[in-house]
Design brief:
single chain, about 140 residues, alpha+beta, Heat Shock Protein 90, six-stranded antiparallel sheet, 3 helices, about 35% helix, about 25% strand, globular
Length: about 140
Amino acid sequence: MGPTDGAGDEADAPRCLCLPAVPESARSAREFVVAALGRAGWLDSVRIDQLALVTSELATNAVIHARTELQVRVDCDEHEARIEVADGVHARPEQARPRPLDPGGRGLVLVDALVDEWGVEDLDGQHEGPMAKKVWVRVTAG
């Protein structure tokens, strides 16, 4: 599976990537997002690295918990960037409160710390295909 919504020069670069529910998809999602954010021009390398980490977390959650195909979408202009990871289950992610020695449960805590805003949207009736929900994050310039 590969990029959709256009191909060609930078102006026509793909904004959406479909991936299988395999662990390697987190890496593909990160690379896709890093390339898209790099084209935007206003994000510094630290911010891009942070958003790559956030993307990896969201994609990994989709692979582990949804076990369905996932779609990664990036929309970026000169003022804001929005990253979405959609999957095929309706169950919403919940922000855990892990204890110091718990082996997991920190993903959404990390997401919350690194973005300006995030949320979950159901896709019933809004989207063709197997996607049921999307988790999105947003960061703004400045």
